Amino acid sequence: MRINEDLTKPVIVHAARLDWLPSPAAGVDRRMLYRVGGEVARATSIVRYAPGSAFPRHVHAGGEEILVLEGTFQDEHGDYPAGSYFRNPPGTAHVPASEGGCTIFVRLWQFREGDHVQIVRQPGEGEAAPLREGADAARILFEDEKERVSIEDWRPGSAITVENSRGLEFLLLSGSLSFQGEKLQPQAWARLPAGQPLEATTGTEGAEIWIKEAPPQHTDVLPMPA
Prior knowledge:
CATH architecture of the largest domain: Sandwich
Structural class: mainly beta
Number of domains: 2
CATH topology of the largest domain: Jelly Rolls
Order of helices and strands: EEEEEEEEEEEEEEEEEEEEEE
Number of strands: 22
Radius of gyration: 17 Å
């Protein structure tokens, strides 16, 4: 399966308009934003767990990055309410589930060789970041020499520019944005190649946004199994 696989082109996906597709686990459905591969895939998705659903225990050979959007995501290590962010590096394993149901944003098989940093950020955690023009708050969820992941709150009716020297990916969490002639609502996702800045205007309610500043695919990304 190949979805939005051309990393040299900008892409915008209005994920809230997509149909939910079933996963191999009962009660777990997906909206696929980017995918190269079959059930084992390099992928970015929005995943919905029905109340009481779970995925069998599995190892993340290619790493996993998650942001909880709604409800409470759970595994044997703890509970992660909406706003939680974590990185499970290659080789980690768990049994993901949700007693009350949840929706999460997930990136799979996009870790780099040698990236073994495991991070759990509960809602509101993260180092405060310098504010760009039009922002009320910004915090860094993860940063190293290759990428920077943050969440920002942008004021209503603000013109926002995010420079893009190495690649940019974002997910709109709440509020609205006007971007490239389109009106973006929550769960809108976009990926921009290096050199194409994010230039947007927020709506009357402002916007909360998750941003990853990194190449669309690292040159040393972990290889997929044959």
